[in-house]
Design brief:
This protein has about 475 residues and is an alpha/beta fold. The protein has three domains: about 5-65, no CATH class; about 70-360 and about 415-450, TIM Barrel; about 360-415, no CATH class. The chain contains 19 helices and eleven strands. The protein has an eight-stranded parallel β-barrel, surrounded by six helices. Strands 1-2 form a two-stranded antiparallel ribbon. Strand 9 (about 280-285), helix 12 (about 305-320) and strand 10 (about 325) form a beta-alpha-beta unit. Helix 2 (about 30-45) packs antiparallel against helix 7 (about 135-150), helix 3 packs across helix 7 (about 135-150) and helix 5 (about 100-115) crosses helix 18.
């Protein structure tokens, strides 16, 4: 059910939830997780009334908090990785572009079966737009999925590639920077306590020295870090990530890492001794976001330079106390590659397109809806169809942009269809958790992460 107004909403949660000031008490956990949570998240996503959407989101987040499900920062765990107290695993960061509520449940189910601790749920600046998922909605969907799946404990929400667009920055640096600052503010308000700053788009390889090449990157990264520190809730240190090389570009080097970090720390110190820096560093080792589609729509094999990845991770830890390097663009790699990331000390790995591909290519995905989406892309995304690309290559590159326009149809697929697709995804999540060696890390997470419950103001519709 989708509640269209506050009257319907209040009637729906009566005797299941109790609102007392800014607090929510769960009177009936079975009914909350069994049925009400479905109605609340569908209301957040599809209700025509903004006030009712806000109220439903409040009930999800505060009801979940009452059950011990709390949005958290991974900072203290990453500090332990940086000091060498813990290690041997690579934290998966998963971007969910479509059917988010159902897919997130599959992640939580796989995590619970494997006794997995840290898993990051993230969404990039670009994905926010083309999947039509603002941070508030994404937070609510992930949190509702945790309630539904039976997860208890910290939930890690991450802003992925909160990226400066180089072309827009050249045209109007202040305006483009403010756009990213506004997104950071919106994300923190929504409970994103892990944020990856991406100013690597501003690296200028034409400059004569590596420090000069990285200067705009590290200066702006420090400025945005300072803003994050000013906005973070009391008791929480947001985990911030930096980036030294744009994914899809040339491979990163230790010299670039040192130039960025030394310059970044200098800039940060100018702004105040109390400002804590980044906890990880994203690098380029040979991958491309989404992979490189061949003429038939399949994905080309990618060769990652694991030696570079290992050196960058080791340098970031021993010299700067970071958790390690972060690998982007990895979900379309061959299965045998994934166990090499923990072996090389990679701190975090970002996974997105592979899961999107599994949804679209699933035998259970309705053929008529797939055709409808692809026809929409061929009509409305025609400007992105490069002359050299086959139709298969064009579809592969653009089908990520079908999740937003067809969100209603995707979320309302029959339950057995969504269940079948998510069962396939759950098996893949479980496989990756095993390869990344995060199975059995729940105790490690619980030792180092102490969730801080951040109160939310009571929405007007519930007063």
């Amino acid at each position: 059910m989708i509640y269209k107004n506050k009257g319907q909403l209040k009637k729906g949660y009566a005797s299941i939830l109790e609102v007392d000031g800014d607090e929510v008490r769960v009177l009936d956990e079975g009914k909350f997780s069994g049925g009400l949570i479905d109605d609340l998240i569908y209301t957040v996503v599809f209700s025509p009334d903004p006030g009712t959407k806000e109220a439903a989101g409040f009930l999800i987040r505060r009801g979940a908090a009452a059950m011990g499900i709390v949005s958290s920062s991974v900072q203290t765990l990453y500090e332990a990785m940086g000091s060498g107290e813990v290690g041997g695993f690579t934290v998966p960061a998963i971007n969910i572009r479509g059917i988010t509520y159902d897919v997130a449940q599959a992640v939580f189910r796989a995590a619970m079966k494997g006794k997995v601790g840290p898993v990051l749920f993230e969404i990039a600046r670009s994905e926010v737009d083309y999947t039509v998922q603002r941070p508030f909605e994404y937070t609510c969907a992930i949190t509702a999925a945790a309630v539904k799946a039976g997860w208890r404990g910290p939930v890690f929400l991450q802003g992925d590639h909160f990226q400066i667009n180089a072309k827009k920055f050249t045209a109007d640096a202040e305006k483009e920077t403010q756009t990213v600052k506004n997104l950071i503010w919106e994300a923190i308000e929504a409970g994103f306590y892990n944020i990856d700053i991406d100013t690597s788009t501003l690296v200028d390889l034409s400059k004569p020295t590596v420090k000069e090449q990285q200067q705009t990157n590290y200066t702006l990264a420090a400025e945005l870090t300072t803003m994050i520190r000013d906005l973070e809730p009391e008791g929480i240190t947001i985990s911030v990530g930096g980036e030294i090389g744009e994914v899809g570009g040339k491979n990163s080097t230790v010299e670039e890492l040192q130039a960025f970090m030394d310059g970044y720390l200098e800039e940060l110190k100018k702004r105040g001794d109390a400002f804590k820096g980044i906890s990880k560093i994203s690098v380029q080792t040979g991958t491309t976001h989404g992979g490189v589609p061949l003429a038939d729509g399949s994905v080309a094999n990618v060769k990652i330079d694991f030696d570079v990845l290992e050196k960058l991770s080791a340098t970031s830890r021993t010299r700067y106390g970071l958790s390690g390097a972060v690998q982007h663009g990895a979900s379309t790699l061959p299965d045998e590659a994934f166990d090499r990331f923990p072996a090389t000390g990679t701190a975090e790995i970002h996974l997105a397109t592979g899961f999107q591909n599994m949804i679209y290519d699933s035998k259970g995905f309705p053929a008529d809806l797939r055709t409808k989406i692809y026809d929409h892309l061929k009509t409305n995304m025609k400007s992105e169809w490069k002359e050299k690309d086959t139709e298969e290559q064009f579809i592969y590159k653009t089908r990520k942009k079908g999740f937003g326009p067809f969100k209603l149809e995707l979320w309302h697929l029959p339950a057995d269809v969504r269940g079948g697709i998510c069962a396939e995804l759950e098996r893949q999540f479980a496989f990756l958790f095993d390869k990344l060696k995060v199975n059995g890390t729940r105790e490690v997470m619980d030792k180092y992460i102490q969730p801080v419950d951040v109160l939310l103001p009571l929405p007007a519709a519930l007063k």
